[in-house]
Design brief:
Layout: E1 4-13, E2 21-25, H1 37-46, E3 50-55, E4 64-70
Length: 72
């Protein structure tokens, strides 16, 4: 049976960056992934992460991106 890891990508307002949003993995909210969402998704994809869904799971004004990858 396959086992998976899950992660949540969360955006936070930061008006001094292009697009006004900086992205974080919720497991490490101290380290910004940056403002360029396509680049972030491509980098995480090269690490095996896939977008599993998008939704407002934190009840904030911005939807979160749910990621998953096969556990090693």
């Amino acid at each position: 049976m396959a086992k998976f890891q899950y992660e949540i990508l969360t955006g936070r307002d930061q008006f001094d960056v292009p697009g006004g949003v900086v992205w974080f993995l919720t497991s490490n909210m101290q380290e910004s992934l940056g403002p360029q969402l396509p680049s972030i998704l491509n980098r995480l994809g090269s690490e095996g992460w896939e977008v599993a869904g998008i939704g407002d799971i934190a009840f904030s004004k911005r939807s979160e991106i749910i990621l998953k990858r096969q556990a090693e």
